[in-house]
Fold this sequence. Notes:
Keywords: Molybdenum. The chain is mainly beta and about 70 residues long.
Amino acid sequence: xxxxxxxxxxxxxxxxxxxxxxxxxxxxxxxxxxxxxxxxxxxxxxxxxxxxxxxxxxxxxxxxxxxxx
Length: 69
């Protein structure tokens, strides 16, 4: 597989929280460091994601926004 994204971090699936259509997949990239991705439930099934299994966090974004006051 080749991909244009440059931020590819290997980790382990720590949790999968499925909602009605969207799942939040938590990937532990280092002990205590979690990256969370929102993907479709269909993607979780298609990728055969399971807690404890390997996964990559692939990050390619034009914006990352978080704010607090």
